[in-house]
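subagent[fold] <- orchestrator: predict structure for attached chain, return tokens only, no commentary.
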Amino acid sequence: MTPRTPLGEIAADFSDPAAEALDWATAELLLAGAEVFWLSSVRPDGRPHVTPLLTIWLDGGLHFCTGTGERKARNLRQNPEVVLTTGTNTLSEGCDLVVEGTAERVTDSAALRTLADAYIAKYGADWTFEVGDGVLDGEGGPALVFRVEPRTVFGFAKDPYAQTRFRFPAAA
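subagent[fold] -> orchestrator:
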């Protein structure tokens, strides 16, 4: 899959006059390096659900896994629209990122093998998976794997304060 390059623009109304837009290369490094993201999904009754999880940034998308019976898996069966959030828990340093998109199942064995290797490379041997039939099998049992290709990404820099919106061109 060929990653799409987004168009970034600073939101002047929400940014320090001296601020510049975050560049996409920096945003990608932050997405790839973040250890924990917060996934927001929607329960069948419309209430929000938020949970922390581990992600892999690969080929222009965030990937995560979840047990087949977990709340987030059940939510995604009904409504695949999600928001993934990461950043620093500080007021005056770092950059927070918000990724909006649609979670799509990954079932291809080669893609799952690549992701299993990426989990070990990023998180260590405690996150070892075998490739099962359309899932990753780990210590906790089979896990569904999802990919979120960003539709919009917001970057919130903190010194100086700056809000950048990245909009992605439609897939060809």
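orchestrator: received. Logging for downstream: The chain has a mean pLDDT of 93. Residues 76 and 111 are 20 Å apart (CA to CA).
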